[in-house]
Amino acid sequence: MRKRLKTKKKYIEYIDEQYNSSRLTEILTNVTEIIGAKILNIAKQDYEPQGASVTCMIAEKDLPPNTLDISCNGGIIPNKDSVVFHLDKSHVTVHTYPESHPDEEISTFRVDIDVSTCGQISPLNALEFLINSFDSDIIIMDYRVRGFTRDEDGRKHFIDHSINSIQNYIPQSVINRYNLIDVNVYQENIFHTKMLLKEINLDNYLFEVDEIDLDPEEKEYIREKLWKEMHEIFYGKNF
Fold first, then answer.
1. Structural domain boundaries, residue 162
2. pLDDT tens for residues 25-40?
3. How do residues 43-55 score in pLDDT, each as one tens digit?
4. What is the DSSP letter of 83?
5. Is the CB of residue 102 less than 8 Å from the CB of residue 12?
6. What's the N-to-C CA distance of the chain in angstroms?
7. Does the chain have fewer CB atoms within 10 Å around its N or its C terminus?
8. Could you confirm whether 231 is annotated as catalytic?
9. Model pLDDT for residues 127-181, shown as the tens digit of each residue
């Protein structure tokens, strides 16, 4: 039992270090480069005992310095525990949740991605990069189109790009690896997609031990525990 608890603690510490706020900031900075956006502001925070959040706000182009709020840092993050970045058109937020039940063997790592936009640029165009950056078993994404724009005749346009699902922006090679569920509210321009990995490779879930070292009963036991944990998180209920 003591060895198991020690291993769980080391795993959570490893994940927390791998995906701390600085690493998340690096990932989101790469996203803005991929979609050709400009960073106005970023907010990042590491939490105790684990977990991190980063919000990155982006613009379609460089804005004159005199039009920016004095709190904006353009992506240059000062050496502080937490900072804030603002964007004028869109934002993408990532939250990490490394977790472990005190009485169970299973530890989990969850990433929530939230995307909101009111301009032509969209972090959705970098979804493949985002998904591969975390290589997660479960992915839950929310996308919302905010506000409206007007054309030269004054007509309001509440969405300026075609979309009926976040899946439109996910490569088929990625979709083939997951089971996906959509919950969309089209009239409100709100899109929600959940993804659950189809197959389990035990070596991707074992920490400080290899699948080859386990007997068949141990393998089956671990698979059942993994599937139960993953399905509870995916469906949002206890089984």
1. 2-199
2. 888 888 888 888 788 8
3. 888 888 888 888 8
4. B
5. no
6. 25
7. N
8. no
9. 888 888 887 888 888 888 777 778 889 998 887 777 889 999 899 999 999 999 9
Rounded CA-CA distance 28/131 in Å is 12
| Residue 140 within a domain | yes
Q: Is the pLDDT of residue 71 over 50?
A: yes
For the cut 50, the answer to whether the pLDDT of residue 75 exceeds it is: yes
Contact 56, 92 (CB under 8 A): yes
- The answer to whether residues 117 and 146 touch, using CB atoms and an 8 Å cutoff, is yes
Asked if pLDDT for residue 236 goes beyond 60, the answer is yes
Compute the distance between CA of residue 116 and CA of residue 122 in angstroms, rounded to an integer. Answer: 8
**Both tokens of residue 129?**
């990069």
Is residue 56 annotated as part of the catalytic site, yes or no? no
Which pLDDT score is estimated for 2? 52
Does 92 reside within a domain?
yes
pLDDT at residue 194, as a whole number: 92
Backbone dihedral angles phi then psi of residue 40, each to the nearest 5 degrees: -100, -45
- Averaged over 196-211, what is the pLDDT? 86
Q: What crossing angle do the helices spanning 127-134 and 21-34 adopt, rounded to 10°?
A: 160
Active-site annotation holds for 133: no
How many domains would you assign to the chain? Answer: 1
Give buried/exposed letters for 165-181 (b at 16+ CB in 10 A, else e): ebbebbeeebeeebeee
| Strand (E) or helix (H) holding 91 | strand 90-100
What distance in Å separates the CA atoms of residue 180 and residue 113, rounded to the nearest whole number? 15
d(CA 96, CA 69): 28
User: Does residue 159 lie in a domain region?
Assistant: yes
pLDDT reported for residue 3: 52
Domain assignment present for 214 = no
